[in-house]
Amino acid sequence: MTRTDMHGHEQDSGPGGYAAARLRLLNEKARSGPPRRSALAGLTDEWLAGLFAAGAPGARGVSLVAVGGYGRAELSPRSDLDLLLLHDGGDTEAVSKLADRLWYPVWDLGLALDHSVRTPAEARRTAGEDLKVQLGLLDARHIAGDLGLTTALRTTVLADWRNQAPKRLPALRELCEERAARQGELQYLLEPDLKEAHGGLRDATALRAVAASWLADAPREGLAEARGRLLDVRDALHLTTGRATDRLALQEQDQVAAELGLLDADALLRQVYEAARVIAYAGDVTWREVGRVLRSRSVRPRLRAILGGGRALGGGKPAPERSPLAEGVVEQDGEVVLARAARPDRDPVLPLRAAAAAAQAGLPLNLHAVRRMAAGARALPAPWPAEARQQLITLLGSGRPTVDVWEALEAEGLISLLLPDWDRVRCRPQRNAVHLWTVDRHLIETAVRASAFTRRVSRPDLLLVAALLHDIGKGWPGDHSVAGEVIARDVAARIGFDADDVTVVATLVRHHLLLVETATRRDLDDPATVRSVAEAVGSPGTLELLHALTEADALATGPAAWSSWRASLVADLVKRVAAVLAGQAPPDPEESAPTAQHERLALEAVATGAPVLSLRAQTEPPAEPSGDPEPLGVELLIAVPDQAGVLPAVAGVLAMHRLTVRTAELRSLDLPDGVDGSVLLLDWRVAAEYGSLPQAARLRADLVRALDGSLDISGRLAERDAAYPRRRGVVAPPPRVTVAPAASRHATVIEVRAQDAPGLLFRIGRALEDAGVSVRSAHAGTLGANAVDAFYVTGTEGLPLPDEEAVSVARKLEETLRA
To answer: Where is the segment annotated Uridylyltransferase (predicted)?
Structure first.
């Protein structure tokens, strides 16, 4: 049997004809988005209707119904076909044969099929028991057969949904929350699930179900466009991968972006995040309204009972209570709304005042209030009035409630009106596994974290504003700290700070990474390190603010960015810098003498002619008086008779035992008179990657073998690396080795940035040994998958390397790591 498809071409109603027409449609570059999804649904309708007609000509009491996404005519290239064969319970044998004639051709084409065969009563009963089935039936659409049967089912299902909404909507909300907890928030994930994550297509479908209940409705502005954008991305994902997948994996993002005509993967993620943010915000508003309606329904019977069945005063509904919060701002029904006399068009500070009041009260901003303020809003004069600046600081200092209030303002464009530079960081992805958030959300999270530190600084207002602006330069090319300093200076002046305060805010933004990078990558015993930080900071007050901002920034980044060890290093650096700013000179590192333990280990190493070592756990006092001490790592002391290859040998043995090196100091010890020989002392801080530390005796035995050449460290590490291959498709950027200018008077500082891997420090140490330089100390740090290590090296005379030699060593080390 042949028929004409929607393009005017003859097609076979069998699988082959449909498959060819489907392929032609999917290869039409001119048709994409909603038109292609609709055309694909229409083409599939025609094919299935033909199969139905051939299997049940003139059938009565049976119909074929599309449900779910297919019922909405939203077929992506690899979407499932959700089908219900509906029958009146008559000739069940004929219905069973018809089902086979429908399902098998679908399976033969390799299409995914979600199918069921039910009577209207069975469908209704199943929907009552299974919420997901009921949601699918809300989008039921007739394809073929008895139209009256389909229509009756649709009418019944909708009526049941509306009657049962007070009971079923809470269950639907719980389902959405469970899914969000499991899948995460779409607007922040680097590899998001477009369907299941919070703010994804499932949530958009849930909002349609809420609207169908007539109990509440979602904010419609931008919602259809956001949902359409996610569907477009899913279409492109299906076409580029050839698979029925909803997860936007890293290795596929560039291809998907190209399919959609976007610049790159970042542009793709930004569009996905913006769409998800619209859907997530609409969901927050809608579910809040559902809760309000259900609460009011449960209160009315009790209220009527209290009033004896009568009506409220005046014969109408009781007037809702309104409690004043600030000028022009009141609380009503658990939300912050505008007072009746409020005039947004004449009160430019009103949005900030309302937001600050809402955040301080821990209440959401009413959607209609925000839209009313947005409709009448106008830009604040520059500089801002003092009240506007104070309200912004109050909002930023309100803690966790700030996040939801800020998102409400942002959804209606008020943040962009107040801070035009915000648009460059809005929904901007951060391709770093350490970061949990987009740039804009990270800035708000940093302000939230900083609000907990306002009691420990003398200028909490400057801390909060710097927290809000510290990464604002990430929307511009180049070093974001440098670009951010310029923007922060402009913004701080615009919102009304004086010249001195503007300079402090700009300095905090410019150097917001200074403390943590210096503390983890530089030798704190080197006077040049401390003096350079003191010169950059300039004053004790700025140092105090920078210390708080550093911790807030790290805590807002993610758990991998902050630890007790990092906190202790930063605190140590701050203490030293504060002393310099107070006029004290930093001690010369050459003046420090070996301890009794150092001398004991050195003498034992000389006596035995072999390495000796000790392991000692380090802790700091607990944060709470009743708590346990917090671990800072383990101090590893090793004394070795002076010989070549000590650094790579020790680093290799530690890598074999899965010990992460945080800092490594190497120096030669002068032995007491009468003792022959020379000893190297290694004072290292290490941490176990998994489980507990290995025994010191085992470490020593492997170190002896490594030094005498009987332990093949390279081979052992290569075997382990091969057993854990890197994830397919993730290509790490090449290593980069640089010489840090003027970082120390006592040594040349070589900085290595590379993909973290077992044995990296071993490879670096061996390359530096081959280059003929001595490593005085090393400072290893890891951010996500990236290692950032600094090595203090000297020449044969114990002095810093000449500039040309330093550059040559760095270049050779980079070539070695790239090989």
So the answer is: 1-324
